[in-house]
């Protein structure tokens, strides 16, 4: 299945939930937010939220600084 991750086409090889995508992309356990088709999905819902072919994800990583 092909999805867009931050406007870059990505092949999802295993699973079909946001939690599966986060594992495949090796995202950190904290400090990450994901929007699916321009809708923010709370982390508590990642395991239930399915991702379909052609969906668009925006991954936002928290950054420290001043």
From TrEMBL:
One matching Pfam family: ThiS
Which superkingdom, per the lineage?
Bacteria
Family matches, as InterPro entries:
Beta-grasp_dom_sf, Mopterin_synth/thiamin_S_b, Thi_S, ThiS/MoaD-like
Name of the encoding gene = thiS
Q: What is the originating organism of this protein?
A: Phocaeicola coprophilus DSM 18228 = JCM 13818
Q: Which Gene3D superfamilies match?
A: 3.10.20.30
- Database matches in NCBIfam families: thiS (TIGR01683)
* CDD domains in alphabetical order: Ubl_ThiS
According to UniProt, the name of this protein is Thiamine biosynthesis protein ThiS
Where is coiled-coil annotated? Answer: none
């Amino acid at each position: 299945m092909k999805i867009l991750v931050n406007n870059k086409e990505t092949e999802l090889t295993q699973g079909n939930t946001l939690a599966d995508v986060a594992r495949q992309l090796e995202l950190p356990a904290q400090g990450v937010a994901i929007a699916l088709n321009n809708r923010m999905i709370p982390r508590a819902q990642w395991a239930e939220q399915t991702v379909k072919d052609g969906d668009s994800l925006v991954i936002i990583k928290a950054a420290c600084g001043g």
